[in-house]
């Protein structure tokens, strides 16, 4: 099966304590798990696509959230621990869904993708909206639950439930999905798997 891994907003502004919208220490715990997923997808010659918030200076989203991830700023850079490999693609986005206003749909279509694995932050915002748009395009969706995080634990749980029940996403730990070849990270599966 042709799969693609989406790595959403693993950026300084979300993942670094000095970032404008730091998601917290819980979010930092997913870094080794996301790295293991990237390693596996690269080894299997499956696409790895980094989705990166890259907002204009006057983006209207800043009425909802603090000014963050301005295009070409430190805050919009991918964290050092997950620097893209030569094989990876980086696609900028300026809205919650990874499909909005960019070429993600064309990339997935050209790769003949059947299944989309989604990792990164924030579970209740960009991860969930990208999962919904993936299902709207008839992709099977997989959420490695220990490779997604949110600054709001209740919103995180709600998003996992919605992705399971509404989008039909498969939820499991990366270790379960990769056959034991991933580090353990604290996660809450609360009966979703």
UniProtKB/TrEMBL annotation:
Source species taxonomy: Bacteria, Pseudomonadati, Thermodesulfobacteriota, Syntrophobacteria, Syntrophobacterales
Protein's recorded name: Isochorismatase hydrolase
One Pfam match: Isochorismatase
Keyword Hydrolase in record: yes
GO molecular function, one term: hydrolase activity
Top-rank lineage group of the source organism: Bacteria
InterPro entries: Isochorismatase-like_dom, Isochorismatase-like_hydrls, Isochorismatase-like_sf
PANTHER family listed in its UniProt record: ISOCHORISMATASE-LIKE DOMAIN-CONTAINING PROTEIN (PTHR43540:SF6), PEROXYUREIDOACRYLATE/UREIDOACRYLATE AMIDOHYDROLASE-RELATED (PTHR43540)
Isochorismatase-like domain: residues covered: 4-174
Keyword entries, A-Z: Hydrolase
Keyword Hydrolase (UniProt): yes
């Amino acid at each position: 099966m042709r799969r693609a891994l989406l790595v959403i907003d693993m950026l300084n502004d979300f993942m670094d304590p000095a970032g404008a919208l730091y998601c917290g220490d819980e979010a930092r715990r997913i870094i080794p798990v996301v790295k293991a997923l990237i390693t596996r997808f690269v080894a299997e010659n499956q696409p790895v696509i980094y989705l990166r918030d890259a907002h204009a200076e006057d983006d209207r989203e800043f009425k909802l959230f603090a000014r963050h991830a301005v295009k070409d700023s430190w805050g919009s850079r991918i964290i050092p621990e997950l620097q893209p490999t030569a094989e990876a693609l980086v696609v900028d986005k300026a809205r919650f869904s990874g499909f909005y206003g960019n070429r993600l749909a064309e990339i997935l279509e050209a790769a003949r993708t059947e299944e989309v694995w989604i990792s990164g932050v924030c579970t209740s915002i960009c991860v969930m909206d990208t999962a919904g748009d993936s299902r709207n395009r008839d992709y099977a969706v997989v959420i490695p639950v220990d490779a997604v995080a949110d600054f709001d634990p209740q919103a995180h749980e709600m998003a996992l439930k919605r992705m399971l029940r509404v989008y039909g996403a498969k939820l499991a730990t990366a270790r379960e999905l990769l056959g034991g070849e991933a580090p353990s990270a604290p996660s809450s599966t609360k009966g979703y798997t």
